[in-house]
Model the fold of this input.
Amino acid sequence: MQLPLQITPDYLNDSIGHLPPGEVIGSDVSFYKKYYRQQIDFLLGDYFQVMEKRLGQLLGQLEQKLENRGDMLAGIEVKAVQRAFSFLASWVLLTGPQKLSVDITADCSVFLTVLYPGKNAYFELFFEAGKEEPVELVFNVYKNKKPVSAYGGKFADALAAFLNQTPIEVPEPAIK
Done:
């Protein structure tokens, strides 16, 4: 949305209704501080609470998988797995997925399934004994069950490739 150069009381009354009649706001920063800052902080706080809750649920799923199937990651430091997965999950949550799930594979990897409207993304973090970081991150993205993009490489490179190759239409957050 592009704001008009000058915000009038009529415009504000339609959106927030806080200005006295006849007051006109130009590019005065105090307007932002006075009228919007509190509302933005409130909304962001709610948004990040939702994100934190979803991250906690995913980390709980990972903990459960580690307890039940941790032998598949024999020789891998659990803290390294948790740290890398937490970073990946936090980052993926910012892209607005509808659903997420995690699993541990026999290939010494953690598999993250991410569902978006009309798209699915699959991330796999591979680990090796004695390494504190994942040795590789692979992702595959499908739209309407057809491959859209794929990449395998170093952790940071794969995340950058995901952003560059696969723009995700992030929906408006459903904050209540």
Notes: The mean pLDDT is 78. The longest strand covers residues 109-116. The two ends are 22 Å apart (CA to CA). The chain has one domain: 40-165.
